[in-house]
Automatic annotation (TrEMBL):
This is Inosine/uridine-preferring nucleoside hydrolase domain-containing protein. Residues 7-264 form the Inosine/uridine-preferring nucleoside hydrolase domain. Pfam families: IU_nuc_hydro (PF01156). GO terms for molecular function: purine nucleosidase activity.
Amino acid sequence: MPEKKHIILDTDIGGDIDDHWALGMLLNIPEAEIELVLTSSGDTRYRTKVAAKFLQDVGRADVRLGIGIARLDQHLQETFSADVKQYLLDDYPGVVVEDGIAEMIRIIESKPEIMLIGIGPMTNLAALCLRRPDLMKKCRLTIMAGSIAKNYKDRPGIVSEYNIAADIPASKVVFSADWKEFTITPLDHCGNMTIDGELYQQLFHSHQAIPKVILDCYKKWLIFHQSSEHYETESSILYDTVAIHLAFTDKYVIFDDMNLVVDDVGFLRKESWGKSIRVALTWSNIGQYKAELVEILTKTRNIF
């Protein structure tokens, strides 16, 4: 039996639907010992309610939740606000911790090593770095963030990736910290990750709780965006699932080590003085990854 990994997931669930897919995937990986799901970006209490309702609906209210740093200055879409309007955090059968940063620190202190997975803006992760820089060497960090700058000033319409651009100062802190290991899947790598065809139909017709609840949320997300035409045929882009994958295995991915920094407009730039970061460059077999993702979501067994 492979050794368990102690996991803290930092997520901005409640905006794009890919966070639901990523959390559902994580729940179904037997090697994952989920210590905390921490919410980030905008109204983090709202996001904690979305996470709590999802976890309760799939029968995993044993997962501990932490409320991250609120950024009410960020006026973000709350895709599931109607869905959780009547939901109270006091109704969550599990534990909800008000000070999610303090809880993250407590958990890291108590474990020999932690796998941090970041699939949202880096406000919480930067707070960890600034409050307890001594804990970085206990943390293997895997995030979905960034795009590698390639003459972007000469390419009109090119914008920086959201998870970095939403809090550039925090991103700079995270990318300059001394992590035990730091892996990223940038947009250049995960921006084509969709499920369609027969694989999507396996999910669509599954009777398992996790895919059923994910697809129910996906339909609500599509309706919110006034489009449900793809509901029966394909997923949206599932960026965040790739970060979950890379926290457990290198399969199907080609990496390169790059010295990267975050610039003032939110792009990742190669600089000799930047920290060395393991970057997922491309897929060696994206089809096999998609098949394995569907297998993870539709049944619980030892995948890796």
